[in-house]
């Protein structure tokens, strides 16, 4: 084995080859010089296989009709996909679960005062888009896991409906108690909006897509351009997934036929108040009828009205009733058995259910997964066999609540924790830059992969394009210098929002989530217009990024499945957690400084002094000043982690390359991520990862060091200090485990 | 005399008086303890005089009909005002000038392709607003000093039409050559838009008021609320005033009947291409017809369309023809002769012409001026006589180009430079915070005045309210600490845009510009809706801020006219110019760093790497890297200025109070501001102040150290260094003059 390759290795490669074509590039992390040569040759063959035409043909088939959970075409799609895998000689099976999946029975939204208006709640077919007219099979526009309700009340506009918006409303003297709130999509995961609204006493929530965010303000609307038309609606789940994802009736266990189920009344992830998503066509008459104060400037949308907060005089009646049925899920699972390390599993997944036709979400990612599988099948037919077992999964029921992946992960929890090396997720694909998120022990690994993939638009490596893109976005010279050093590009932290959640957050499996994006834009998310016609006119029209995704993820899978030593690297992890620790310390200091400042401003009479009597703002409440907290255990643990991470790098560089040593090290290495689990975060024990979680009040917005950070955010000082100790213990255990792996390597 | 009072003196005053009512407050700057007592008593009597009812009645009369330059009601208003002053026993006369003032003969704007639309170009009367229907007397909507033109061309949307917008267009591959541009109001003074458009080859300019800026996005539109209705238009001058203000035919000299006049063809401040302002009602069909690329997000307005840049397919025909007539100006001038220092003049002005009825602009400021004059008249009748001569001026023709003040200042240049102590300007008034701008030698003075005026809404001093308001806006703890130290609040620098311009920029008279504002908002600027009805419904409805303005400016006038030693203080000046010097040095460094970074990005291929082939952006041009410049002369001069300023403070503190010493010092002091003049800024010699100017490419946006700053901005390195030397010499002369004043005091 060789020392850690320089981060420039991928970049230098081309130049080196030009000058001395016979000299080998630096070996791939985890591979010896010799096994690296074999691996590179294998990968080169693999990357030649994925074909845009195949991707297009799969998408055409899979997105041809609405395929939501429980629909006929969903089941057909599972069977078609399993047959496709089998036609390539792969071992595919369908695993089923039974989950709660409510569908609308009645939806009514009307303005009852000061004028009358009945919301349309219907997305019309558009000319030139054949699948948009499949109305009989389309799910109506709704939010899954909203409770039933029949409420009438004054309307209050709450911006994005996140906690900060309610603080602002309170200063304006506006309460939502007994009111129906209307919130813009955006600013948080949608399920946060009804949760926070209910906490503030609202009786109903309407969520609409403002044209500022994905409608005409952004560009031409469909079918002229890619953005959301007047009557387009974003469906979506509003289950309280930051509590737990998956079937609301079977938290923590697989929703198998014989699973013990909660009664509906005890399902804690249903909303407390009824929720309905609407179009901006339906929202405009409601918003225009709201009176009261004009909104703060940053709350404005792009409708040609004066946005006001209310409450009233607009009064709305919202009536929702659902069929509270259980529906079957069909997860398609492909297993490629490993050889010398068959009990080590590399899992790769993408969901296959859409809200309607779902061409972009999820089919554009699913077709890359399928094309990877075809590539692996072709390699298998040519005699290759993976060292480790590879599992490809096409999940059902992601949209309502990560159902298919969560139930599968819960059902197989023990064996997954024992065997899984890593889980790689995708969830749709577009044009542009490679998005890389996940466990930071895989940061170096995924950077290395990215250096070997060619960007279709520029011919650069996707790593190089992303590096330069990040430089172009950097705000300081320091950031640019760091980026130009050639160090690994930082990967994002994962919270929730896709099928990696159960693997990472609940089981502690090292995870990556990958996908191309950042160029172009659209406004058809979770609508009937997310279909083949739209995708092939406006997104990755020639499927070259679909091919790049298949090449990227397939390469990652091959490397993970074939590496002599599993390519974990912990310096990136320790640096990242150090950054998070600095952030939570800074957060505490900022909260303290802000509290002191706010209290001083109250003492100084500042809020009365700046009060405009015609638009009065009530002074904020006196702030609780944060005490200093004992971060020493965390600092000590981070020191230990850093030392262990660096020690492991030395051991890896010096390792003799004995397969037995590697096998012993690998058995330890694949368990490191699990040392970062706890018994569960406060108030939501399903979430066990101590470094990453979806935010309790942000949803998609990842919270890093979530136990500590959310305690500080909520002013729970004692809990914050307890969480520091818990994280410190877990990092110390991680450090020990890494030391053991290093020792095994020698 | 006493040492400089602490900045908290105004604040401490109340408390001190409560505890020891017989103890005097600290003396007012420029007054001995004894004269200060007399002055305070006088001011107290004065401040009791201004009455909201009087202010309202003057406004009702003065804004009753359109009163633009050359209108019958303008002349009537001058006579009425002069008679009003005379009725109080004041010596009022009317001074006249003859100036070029074009008015529209023909205005036509139409979309000729791809569809037809003829712009309305007409503001309708609104119910409940009696003066909005005075159509026969209203000037049509137009921009004064646009040239005649009859042009047809493709339309290009240029955002605000400032230089940075054209850089962005160039990167998008869009040229305005041969095109008609449409720009939003805002982002610069309006006259910059046609100037920059013409420099880029455009053949016409349309300026419109986007509802994002002062229409429905901000609040309800008139007459429901105060904001700009669909057909409301902002009139305004587009003369190239950063070159020179005043009559385009008589630069530098008063436009008296016998003045030598340029032929119209040589008037350099007329636009190069025709310009027309329009409403958003007229703009929407034009903008909606523009194709091409979608605008950058920050260019979007609030119309319910997808904003695009063009060029075309929208093609417009713009035809403008004007009556190029000369019109009379009527400046109303009141003189209150001084006694012991009659050759020292304190001048106070506000214009009296509106674009239409002009209730807010300018009448709301003019009525305060009138009420001050009434107060002074009352004091005179009670036996008071000012030490210095006081001149009150109600300027005509401010709107088209600061005509009345500039011609008067040019006509009386020599005597004004010999005699004037200071000029105090206002230009309309609203609710909220005291805005203070001007010569920093008067910074301490105006802070001290502000501590003695009570804010009508909070009962705090207007100084205290502004301090707390500034604290509430501060972004850093350092800023807040500085503000809380009680030091003088920083006053803003003056560029152009109102009648102070000729006094400060051309004659070097120490200047203040004052007014209340910052609460509420409106969208009737320069429209027919700026009238009594609107003002009394939505602005300072009870005229309590009109009274506060009369109290503020009247107090300032009384102090300047009565001080033993003129209340200039130069530490504030030297600190301020030090800040400006730091800014221009930082600007140079930033330009250098930015140029190096941009060139590196070009070398690295960054712009190709981040290029989206579907929305291509051309790489920017290679940047010229700024050299280091010799700032040593400026630094040395600033050291000298600081020493002189501090030396003067010591001398002032130790001064014995002899009237002869004071008189000798005053004769020197009133000339200090003139030491900051040069022979003129590069390419615009009318502007002579070296510390402040309106920006050549920003207009309203003040440029401090304009010679140095604009040379750096334009990459004229040699000129920048020359300007450093010129500024250094002037500051050195200022320091010498201040030393002489200090010596005179002893």
Task: Give an overview in words.
- 2 copies of one chain form a homodimer.
- Chain A is an alpha/beta fold.
- Chain A has 3 domains: 9-100 and 327-562, Zn peptidases (Aminopeptidase); 103-324, Glucose Oxidase, domain 1; 571-745, Up-down Bundle (Transcription Elongation Factor S-II, Chain A).
- The first copy, chain A, contains 24 helices and 18 strands.
- A 7-stranded mixed sheet of chain A has the order 1-11-13-12-14-16-15, with helices on both faces. A 7-stranded mixed sheet of chain A has the order 3-2-10-5-6-7-9.
- The longest helix of chain A has 33 residues, at 571-603.
- Residues 1-22 of chain A have low confidence and may be disordered.
Summarize the structure.
By secondary structure, chain A is of the alpha/beta class. Chain A is globular and about 80 Å long.
